């Protein structure tokens, strides 16, 4: 039988642990004054099968999905994009997106010039998330070291077909110019208030990000969760190297976010309904809060 004194010590330790966790959360949010996150829709990819996005979905279901990037503005003047979209003609001809704007033009809808973007977090090497990186001439590119090394070498040769050959050449060129910062694995704070995490396994080392804001911790899932349906029904994405790892990443997102509302999937058009606010000047730009 446990002695009363031992019980008191254990109870005190638990209270201290809970208090410590609370302090961490409060401090992280307090250190992010005026940080804002916006989703920007630059194109629509029409009539895609939902079964290509959500494992086990009805194969007859179709959806017009949103192509978007996420804009983070920090009080220190840094302007950060999560992903860079696409613009090369080969992708426009193949996918025929509607309502298309070059990502460099789409950010202007939020009042940002492409040359003002200081950083781009590339979640993974797929064309619709990395192709537009060279549209932002002053930006440093943040990508997982393992993601880079698995898909291409420093001469831009493709090592895994998940990366497009033109994008591989572009990324290698940016690296030679000193503009690529390779991230060393999971749970890394790459700048104050912004952390990246691996484990979603959409690609070899895809990453998602958290952003500390006055509204709480926002999770930018990118393609580690395509749709709200992945999260609400706890279903893995259809395009993953490891379904169990993807589900674990989704569970982790739910723990990291201040609320489930603040987890933003990578392609769900409902983002622009859920976060629409009275007085928004453009329906293609919404603030996440």
What are the key terms here?
Metallo-beta-lactamase, Chain A, 2 domains, 7-stranded mixed β-sheet, 5-stranded mixed β-sheet, 29% helix, globular
The named CATH superfamily of the largest domain: Ribonuclease Z/Hydroxyacylglutathione hydrolase-like
**Overall form:** globular
- Poorly predicted parts: 4-30
- Strand content is 15-25%
Radius of gyration: 20 Å
Order of strands in the sheet with most strands? 6-5-4-3-2-1-12
Task: Give the class-level CATH name of the largest domain.
Answer: Alpha Beta
* C-alpha end-to-end distance: 49 Å
H/E element order: HEEEHHEHEHHEEEEEHHEHE
Total domain units: 2
**How many β-strands, per DSSP?**
12
Structural class: alpha/beta
CATH architecture of the largest domain: 4-Layer Sandwich
Number of helical segments with 4 or more residues: 9
The share of residues in helices is 25-40%
Mean pLDDT over the residues: 91
Q: Sheet bearing the most strands, described?
A: 7 strands, mixed
CATH topology call of the largest domain = Metallo-beta-lactamase, Chain A
Summary, kept brief:
The chain folds into two domains: 1-29; 31-287, Metallo-beta-lactamase, Chain A (4-Layer Sandwich), CATH 3.60.15. The protein has helices at residues 4-30, 89-95, 103-106, 127-130, 145-151, 165-176, 228-232, 243-256, 271-274, and strands spanning 36-49, 62-73, 79-82, 119-121, 140-144, 180-183, 188-191, 194-198, 207-213, 216-222, 263-265, 285-287.
How would you describe what is shown here?
The chain is α/β, with parallel strands linked by helices and 289 residues long. The chain has 2 domains: 29 residues; 257 residues, Ribonuclease Z/Hydroxyacylglutathione hydrolase-like (Metallo-beta-lactamase, Chain A, 4-Layer Sandwich), CATH 3.60.15.10. The protein has a 7-stranded mixed β-sheet with strand order 6-5-4-3-2-1-12. Strands 7-8-9-10-11 form a 5-stranded mixed β-sheet.
